[in-house]
Amino acid sequence: MYWFLTHYDRKYFTGFVERMNDRGMPTKWVHSPVSHGERLNNLIGAWRAVKASKKGDTIIAWYDFQGILAWWICLLTFRDRNIVALNIRLKDKTTFVNKMAAFLYKYALRNSKVEATVSSREYGEALKRRLGLKRDFPLVRDINLYPGYAYPFKDNGKRIFCGGNQSRDWNMVLRVARLLPEYRFVVIMPGKEREKVTNVPSNMRILCDVPYKTFMGYMHSSTFLLLPVDTNAPAGLIVMFQAAWLGKPIFTNSTQVMREYIGEEHGVLVEGDDKDFAEKIEYYYNYQEEAAAKVDAFQRYLREECSEERFIDKVITEVLQEHSN
Q1: pTM of structure
Q2: So what's the pLDDT on residue 307?
């Protein structure tokens, strides 16, 4: 029996369970509560999956850290479960919390009962070196759920959008905005991050904790997506996929994960500093045919490489079946 563990309740997760069952792999869905803090919710969800499953069952964790927690629960309570942690997101920061997380990952990933995937080959190799592991991680590119539309590129004026919840380099966004005073920037960030952002230029508007519809509306009315991240771990991929389907060329920094998805054809990888971001934004605003070509290419890439069907195929053939042999 397979147990698909998710860290929140969303209808689109039912597609994974249905496809697994359709392929003769009996799967049930279990998810975390939403009434407590995030960390406690994750722990309760992991405990629910361990408690619901039986000896020899496999727990597939959508949020990788819950898979790690489930293994530790099994270790401490003498339970036998197989664990699959999908697409490791362990950050490379040196905070106390990240050091503790690295400890938990390191010992779980050394165990033969634990399998894990990564969303970037380069990130997977760096993770092996960082944690001192000898194993390889299967590559399963992050799932992109096609929203039912694919807009072409459109010039909405000199409007730049940047938004998201985690691991954004907000200071980089500020510096780029100062270098491009004729452009209008809309930035949407978590409220807890707002106090860290000071000396906001007059051409930037900052909003916090807005509804999803408002977030997508501002993204849709922009011309470009600016997405600098402050980690080599997976970050910003969901926003990047959303922007692609809305027809937005993507400007991001060159990290281990971003290099897996954004190349010369799919978007703009910036190797340098704020000046490089500003120069590339101006270039592609002036040469919009090239910007439009990048949008078209990235949408094709998402259909071919990041579809739900391909994601599940990879999980089944390269993780579950290999792990059972």
Answers
A1: 0.90
A2: 87
